[in-house]
Amino acid sequence: MLSERQLRLYKNLSFTHSRTAQSMRSAAPLLLLFILALSDAAECQSFPEFKRKHILPTQFKTKDIRAWRKHLLKNKLCERTETQSFIKSSEENIKQICNGSGEKKNNYTKSTDLFEVYIVKSSKGIEPKCIVENCTSGKYNVIVKCEMYLPVHYHGQYIDMNTSPQPCF
Ligand SMILES: *[C@@H]1O[C@H](CO)[C@@H](O)[C@H](O)[C@H]1NC(C)=O
Ligand SMILES: *[C@@H]1O[C@H](CO)[C@@H](O)[C@H](O)[C@H]1NC(C)=O
Ligand SMILES: *[C@@H]1O[C@H](CO)[C@@H](O)[C@H](O)[C@H]1NC(C)=O
Fold first, then answer.
1. Which atom number of ligand 3 is nearest to the Cα of residue 150?
2. Would the N or C end of the chain have less CB density within 10 A of its end CB?
3. 45-167 adopts what CATH topology?
4. Span 41-79, pLDDT tens digits
5. What does the pLDDT average to over 135-145?
6. Which of 68, 136, 137, 157 most suits a substitution to test ligand 2, by most atoms within 8 Å of the C-beta?
7. Helix, strand counts (H, E) of the chain
8. Which helix (DSSP H) or strand (DSSP E) does residue 121 occupy?
9. Residues 116 and 88: beta-carbon distance below 8 Å
């Protein structure tokens, strides 16, 4: 499925394209592939996307399964992947991972602080529209990719050795 943004990009480009060279229509599929690759990278790798996919609002009621369903649906995350990770902390603390508080490891940065991370398994349903199949939380070091001092990609998490994840509700 193409996102609205990808479609818009494609339409704009193919419009310019058809005005300049009708005979080059056969190049369109190639062009589409190129745009998909570009916009995909752009979508996964920006702080707003990171925020949508991995940061919970600070007042989020993590013990309320209905709040999870609502959050997943509202942010179009219910069936994004089977298992998803969410950090509950202030945006400022999370940004700091990439701006001084984290530890660089190869292409990634590992937080030195522990964050409360929720690991949620969900799938699409009918009623409710989003089924939360499992939810656990614990204190983890998170591993992210940083760009321009901002987290843009969530890579994974390590749990603190002395703890184990607990059910959310
Ligand atoms: C780091 O990123 C570079 C460029 O994207 C890539 O060539 C390299 O394999 C990556 N290294 C690791 C350890 O993932
Ligand atoms: C939920 O996830 C935890 C951690 O992965 C796992 O230990 C547990 O068995 C799961 N529970 C269910 C009901 O799937
Ligand atoms: C990084 O930290 C510096 C110093 O606290 C701050 O001025 C800057 O705005 C921060 N950058 C980002 C992207 O948060």
1. 13
2. N
3. P-30 Protein (3.10.130)
4. 444 689 999 999 999 999 999 999 999 999 999 999 999
5. 97
6. 136
7. 5, 7
8. strand 115-124
9. yes
